[in-house]
Design a protein that fits this description.
Order of helices and strands: HEEEHHEEEEHHEHEHEHEHEHEHEHE
CATH superfamily of the largest domain: Medium-chain alcohol dehydrogenases, catalytic domain
Structural class: alpha/beta
CATH topology of the largest domain: Quinone Oxidoreductase, Chain A, domain 1
Strand content: 15-25%
Length: 340
């Protein structure tokens, strides 16, 4: 094959993001299979980086013997929030070519997966907005664990992507007091736009009195730690009211560093872990994603301004450079696969 023809063939091949080792990322061509029974082939439009999860994986910021250590093997294919258009369907599939769908699949220009694992994006919802479905689902698990109700009080530690989704769910649920703690001013602006009633621009270990003041002089009943940083756990325990509830939503790579304090016994706190995998027959990937789309379509879940950086899929390595070196400037980092 002439060199020019070989180059064209490589350019036309599907592309995907691959971690080949610690802090090593490549954009590799791969072979795409035809859809089999019950499967669809999808051309990706965009995929959203989960900056918390992917930063931990990219930098191997986890301890030996943790579930992270068991999960991350090379080659590792990151990403779990993809939006695309169906190109072809296998036998036994009711979906059709041209349907826009979301799937929990990795960063790639094309995908083949089971039709049952995707949700159709309603007409009128932009693909960039739809890309938040997976992080909203994770935050939903935190909201379930929090068991808050109308008129309740909540403090959310961390205004990154998971924190932003948590704010919007609390707002949609009618929580009266939604306080967000994060030292980055731009993140707090986005939290206010999503429904936060008060923000505290301080690190967690310095914010106790400000949190109390923002809640009318008392501590909130519910605390949601969405940071994924083990050192924040002790602050989360201090922020909860007596007999309050502390939800550990951010999944730390160093759980041994999360230490209990006397607050747990002396003030009767309840600690609950929340995770993406906590599905049941009522609330799971399908039902939560459908609810997310309903909330977005109705205007009760605002996503304006949350995508701060977009990279062509073929330049995905630059996205991880941004996420690692200038993360405080980012919120949603999007891979654009429209040219791949």
């Amino acid at each position: 094959m002439p060199a020019s023809s070989a180059s064209a063939a490589r350019a036309a091949a599907p592309l995907r993001v691959v971690f080949t080792g610690k802090q090593q990322v490549e954009i590799q061509p791969f072979t795409l299979d035809a859809p089999a029974q019950g499967q669809v082939r999808v051309r990706s439009e965009c995929s959203l980086m989960s900056t918390g999860t992917e930063n931990i994986v990219f930098n191997r910021l986890f301890d030996s013997g943790t579930h992270w250590d068991n999960w991350v093997k090379y080659p590792f294919f990151p990403g779990y929030a993809s939006v695309g258009v169906i190109e072809a369907v296998g036998p036994g599939v009711s979906l059709k070519a041209g349907d826009r769908v979301v799937s929990r699949s990795a960063h790639a220009s094309h995908q083949v997966f089971d039709a049952a694992s995707c949700n159709v994006v309603p007409i009128g919802i932009d693909p960039r907005q739809a890309s938040w479905f997976a992080l909203a689902k994770i935050a939903f698990m935190g909201a379930r664990a929090a068991a808050y109700s109308l008129g309740d009080s909540v403090v959310i530690i961390g205004a990154g992507p998971i924190g932003q989704m948590s704010v919007r769910l609390a707002f949609a649920a009618g929580v009266k007091s939604i306080i967000v703690v994060d030292p980055v001013a731009k993140r707090l602006e986005l939290a206010r736009a999503g429904g936060a009633t008060a923000v505290v621009a301080q690190p967690g270990d310095q914010a106790l009195e400000a949190v109390k003041a923002a809640n009318g002089g008392t501590l909130p009943r519910v605390v949601i730690d969405g940071t994924g940083h083990h050192a924040v756990f002790s602050s989360a325990l201090r922020f909860a009211a007596d007999r309050g509830r502390v939800v550990i939503l951010g999944d730390t790579g160093s759980p041994a560093g999360q230490h209990l304090s006397s607050d747990v016994i002396s003030r009767g706190l309840t600690i609950v872990g929340a995770h993406d995998c906590h599905n049941d027959a009522t609330w799971n990937g399908t039902t939560i994603t459908d609810l997310f789309f309903d909330l977005v379509a109705s205007g009760r879940f605002r996503l304006d301004g949350l995508i701060t950086h977009t990279f062509p899929g073929a330049e995905g390595a630059k996205a991880y450079e941004m996420a690692n070196q200038r993360r405080g400037e980012t919120m949603g980092i999007l891979f654009d696969w429209s040219q791949a």
